Amino acid sequence: MTGVPASAAGGSGAPGAQGTKPVRGGKLGAAAVDQASIWNIANILTMVRLLLVPALVMLMLAGGGYDPAWRSLAWASFAIAMITDLFDGHLARTYNLVTDFGKIADPIADKAIMGAALICLSALGDLPWWVTGVILGRELGITLLRFWVIRYGVIPASRGGKLKTLTQGVAVGMYILALTGPLATLRFWVMAVAVALTVVTGLDYVKQAVVLRRRGKAAEGDAAEGDAAERGAAESSVSDRSPADGSPNEADRSPGERSPGDRPADSAVGERAAASRAADDRSAAQESER
Q1: CB 91 within 8 A of CB 45
Q2: 76-121 pLDDT tens trace
């Protein structure tokens, strides 16, 4: 489940309101959106799964850990936990019952119920410890891997990962039951498939994380280069507007410092004055010749 406030997901909840989408599930869906808080049905199922963790441990270890009746009850609690894992996610997505609590508690509950079952089976000698270590190590490693690349994106759950989860649930459930004969042999092979899928999908997640991080780093580098180019262009534009040799701007020059080309009107006046002086000089020369 992903945490999105109910108000953002469903608005006012009125089907005919402009800008809102109809809620799937009719009246039940509208009612679910209205009460999308920590106490919605999806979160309650997640809490039930968390409460089943200590119950599973007690039932697994009751009667010395090998009583078929207690193991059957332990299997029932494990099966309920697996089923609630399917239903709480479906309800949250269908009726927009997504909250921050569900986003955090749901994966914790999944790993807690599976980890408790595996540790109990290994402690009772029914399952080798290396199998438990591979499965739990993979789950912990993938969780840390998701946090490692979360700033660059989210690694989506693949079909192989979903198949791995289903196979693990079936295999662990078969080990919880006190099976004998051909069924005991069958559960060994189901667990072998689960371990293989655990390793293969784990390596696939590592590959996706490396690619995602590499692309994110490249995108950050391109963005940094673009910002540097924009800053350089802005600085160049500012420097072009001001003289580079430190000479004063035209607005700061005195009238005598301005060039003739800068002041067309002053140039015309100067030409007339020069022509007048030339005429006076000619008149003076003619008077002296007389």
Answers
A1: yes
A2: 999 999 988 888 877 877 888 878 787 788 888 888 999 999 999 9
Inter-helix orientation angle 68-94/41-61, to 10°: 170
Are the beta carbons of 22 and 9 closer than 8 angstroms?
no
- Report CA 195 to chain centroid distance, whole Å: 28
Examine the pLDDT at 8 and tell me if it is beyond 70.
no
Cα 184 to Cα 251: distance, rounded to the nearest angstrom:
97
CB 53 within 8 A of CB 112: yes
pLDDT at 48 over 80: yes
3-state SS, the chain, equals CCCCCHHHHHCCCCCCCCCCCCCCCHHHHHHHHHCCCCCCHHHHHHHHHHHHHHHHHHHHHHHHHCCHHHHHHHHHHHHHHHHHHHHHHHHHHHCCCCCHHHHHHHHHHHHHHHHHHHHHHHHCCCCCHHHHHHHHHHHHHHHHHHHHCCCCCCCCCCHHHHHHHHHHHHHHHHHHCCCCCHHHHHHHHHHHHHHHHHHHHHHHHHHHHHHHHHHHHHHHHHHHHHHHHHHHHHHHHHHHHCCCCCCCCHHHCCHHHCCHHHCHHHHHHHHHHHHHHHHHHHHHHHHHHC
Nearest Cα neighbor of 4 from 49, 45, 40 is 40
Instruction: Render the burial of 129-157: b for 16+ CB within 10 Å, e for the rest.
Output: eebbebbbebbeebeebeeebeebeebee
Mean pLDDT over the full length of the chain: 76
Give me the pLDDT at residue 172, please: 95
Q: Is the dihedral of CA 41, 106, 3, 198 positive or negative?
A: negative
Q: What angle do CA 277, 278, 279 make, to 5 degrees?
A: 90
What average pLDDT does this structure show over 7-19? Answer: 40
